[in-house]
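Class, study these two lines:
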Amino acid sequence: MTYCAPPLPGVSLAAPGPRPVPTPPGAGRLDRARARLAARLVAAAGPDGLLRAPCDSRMLESALALRLLTVTDVDPDARERLTRRLKTGLDEGAPDPVQEAAARAALGECADGRGALARLLGGFDHFTAGRKHLMFRTVLAELGADAFAELPDSGSDPDSGSDPGSVFEARGQQRWLITEMAALKVLHAFGTRAPRLVTEDDWRALEPCALPGPPPYGNHLARILALLALRLHPRYAAAVRARARELRNVLREDGGLPFLTGMDVFATATGGLALAGAGAPALTLRSLATALTRHQNPDGGWGFDRGVGQSDVDDTAYCVEFLRTAAPKRPGVGTETAAGERYLLARQGADGGFPTFERGTASEVAITAAAVNALAPEPAHRAAVAAAVRFVTARQEAVGPYERSWSLNESNALFRTVLAHDSFLAVAPGHPAAAGAARARARAAARLLETQNRDGGWGHVPSDPSDPISTAYALIAVARTPGARVATARAVRHLLERQRPDGGFTSRPDQAGPRPLAYHVPLLTDVCVLLGLNHARAALAGP
C-alpha cells in the first residue's frame, strides 16, 4: 500500500504542506514502514473508537500501592504481585533515585531518601521545583525512607495565625494537584503529630478518591496518596479498605500500578493526525473524530483520557487540530472546534503564553506552541496567536529553545516551536512579529541539526544515545527545514533500521509526570514515529 499525504490547508502536524506528495525514487521502504505503522494505529482502536493507549506500570505507584495494602492489611495476593514487581524493577535497575528509594522502603529495606531526592532534583530547574521537593520528601517519609520535612513555624502557637500547612496550598491549580497536595498535607500533619493542621476542607478535597470506579482525573498516583491520607480518619476507614481491595483490578500484567489510567484521548488526537498525514481513508478519520467529540468536556476542552474532566491546553489543542483536519465538513465539527478554541483562548495569560491547565499559572513554551498550531488557521484569533508567538520568541531568545516540560526531550519542545513559527509565518507573513518568529525558528532548527547523533538519531538531550521517539520529534522539524535533506535522510534510515518485525517501535520512556519522573505510554512511540516519517516523506519528495 502506498500512502500519500493529502492536501491540507496551512501548516499541520498531520502533513507538512497543502500539496499532494509525489513518489520519489527509492521511497518504497519508507512507504511500507508508514503503512505498517498506520495499520498498527488503526488496530489499536477500541470499541468506543478511541485508540487504546495504556500506561505502563511504574515503581513509585507500585511502592505506594504496596504501602496501602500493607497498612490496611488486605489482599495478600496483590501484595505479592506488587512485591515481585518492585524486586524485579530493582534487579533491572530503577529509572531514577527517588523511585529506587521508594521501592526499597516499601519492601522494608534501608533507603536513603534524602540523598535520592538530592540526586533527582539537583539539576531540576523548573517553576515547580519547590513543590516537587516537598512532594517527594513527604512521599518518601510516608514510605519510611526519610523524615518529614520541617515546615516554617511548625512549632508555633496554633492561635497565632501562622499556618505552616499553607505550603501545601494548591488553590487555582489543576484539580488532581489540589487532591495530591491535600493528601500530602494530611500525611505530613499526622506524620509530625500535628493533626490539628488538617481542616474539614482537606478531607472533603480527598473524598472523591474514596468512591468506587476509576480514579478521579485518571490519576492513580493522586488516588493512592489520597487513600493513604484518608485511612487516618475513622470516617473513611471502610471505604479505603474497599478501594484497596479493588487495586488488583488495575494492576498491569507485570503486577505493578501505572501513573495514569491511559492516554486514549491524547493518542487518538495525535494518532489521528498521523493517520491523516499517512493518507488513511476518510471513514477512518471521521470515526476517530466522532469518538473524540464524545469525550469533549462541558468547558469545551479535552482531558488526556476518557472520563478525565480536567481539561488541558495540550490535549485540547491537538483535538482541535485533528477535528479540523479530519472532518472539516462533518456536521457539528465547527461547533466543537469553536468550543475548543474558546477554551484555549480563555487560558491565555497576560504574557501571551499558555499554561497547561489553569489561567494564571505559569505559561510554558511547548504548550503555547501547541495552542498556536490549533488557533492559527482561524483569522479571528490572529491577535492571540501573535501574542503567543511573541511569548515563545522572547522565551527562546532569553533562555534558549531547550525547554523540557511534559516530555523529557529537548526535541519535543523544539519541533512544536518550529511548527508554531511556521503556522504563524504562513498566515501572517507581514506581521511585525514575523521577523522574530523567523529568527527563533532558524535557531530551533539549528539546535537540532547541530545535535544529531552520528547514527542519524537524537536522544532526550545531546549527550544521550538515540532513541526512536526523540528522533521522531526532531525529524518533524528537520524535515521541514530547507537544506536539511541529508539530515532528514539519515534520521529516516535510523528509524527504519529500528522498526520491529510487527511494524512497531520500542523506545525509552519520554513522558514526565509528576515532572521530572518518567512514565511510558508505548503507543505514543508509534504515533510520533509515523508523524515524523510523514513529514520526511514529503520533504524527500520535494525539489
Notes: Residues 523-541 form the longest helix (19 residues). Residues 86 and 205 are 30 Å apart (CA to CA). The longest strand covers residues 511-512.
